[in-house]
TrEMBL record:
PANTHER family: SLR5037 PROTEIN (PTHR38342:SF1)
Transmembrane feature ranges: none
Family annotation (Gene3D superfamilies): TT1751-like domain
Protein name: Uncharacterized conserved protein, DUF302 family
Coiled-coil annotated spans: none
InterPro entries membership: DUF302 (IPR005180), TT1751-like_sf (IPR035923), UCP021774 (IPR016796)
Amino acid sequence: MSYYKEKIFKSPSIEELRSKVEAALKEEGFGILTEIDVQATMKKKLDKDYPPYLILGACNPVFADKVIQAEPHIGALLPCNVTIRGLEDGEYEVAIMDPISAMAAVQNPEIEPLAGEVKQKLERALNSI
């Protein structure tokens, strides 16, 4: 089982694709809580050049509430990460984490069905971009 699913997109810029990703996630009830600009961070901290690379921390509050109620320590595995990574020739990879894989170590029978529902929502968002 892979820990992520990805698709390749053509886009004039990472910003334009990011807007589409956020809109697709919003349709599934997710908001963006965090953003890491890997390219800028690596340049600043290590003086290394990276292609455009964003890590977006997506949260669906309804499901976050359910999993936190079922497993209070689950916050160590939240939010759901979505990445947008620049490739070549105007292509970008958008990848979503697999919540089932991420939650596999959690020994709580209430979590797996919730992770399955979140996975479906993330996949629908990815497929609608």
